[in-house]
Amino acid sequence: MEVFEVILALIAVTAAFVVSASAGLGGSLVLVPALALVLGTKEGAALAALLLAGNNVVKLVAYRVTIPWRAAAWLVVATVIGAAVGARLLVSAPEDMVTVAVIAGFAAALAFERLQLPWLRRRAAPVLALGSGLTSGFSGTSGPLKGIAIRSLPLDRLHIVGAASVVSFAGDAIKTAIYTDAELLGGDAYTLAAVAVPLMVAATWFGRSLNHRIGERGYTMLFWSVMAGYTWRLLAGI
Question: What is the pTM of this model?
Fold first, then answer.
């Protein structure tokens, strides 16, 4: 990699980790396209999964007191199943069709948020988590479905970030294992991952402090901004 490519990648890594630690998710929104630009689509998606899995380990430590293990258990299982299938469909999956479905799900989630239908959102959460795992596996990013699934849980912002951290770690870990087995990661990817470790720690603690300062209303705005960003990226790819 050229020097400017390394600098671009590290800037993207730092931004992704701050967003992920403050909102609970959204790191792939920044990281996947940046790394795909530097390393290519497949290796970029694979390295993003590796880095985000590592970042989620740091987040699990940072938010260890507010991780709702029981509440998030079904979402973890559904995400892992979806990610395992999606990762194996990285090349051949019909992305346009899935993109339309994801955007429709995002629109429905906004309607649920407005209409206050928590019972329906809770029942749909595992299905949304499964869908997020599928899209994450073959495109590198879960889109808005994972956030919507986690948002359906009756949790405050700190517990939402805790739930997002454990769900995201499970999905990224299984994706990394599959991508590594397929030998998608080269030497440059591992070097970049090693350099990113201190940035991972610093950005996570900064993002956590930001989450504490913004309050519930500020977090809600941040959360839906990330969801809108996911949807915009999907629309741009159609």
Answer: 0.78
Residue range(s) defining the domain that contains residue 170: 3-237
Average pLDDT, the chain: 80
Give mean pLDDT, residues 219-232.
Answer: 77
State the total domains in the chain. Answer: 1
pLDDT band at 91 (very low <50, low <70, confident <90, very high): very low
CB-based contact 202:15 (threshold 8 Å) = no
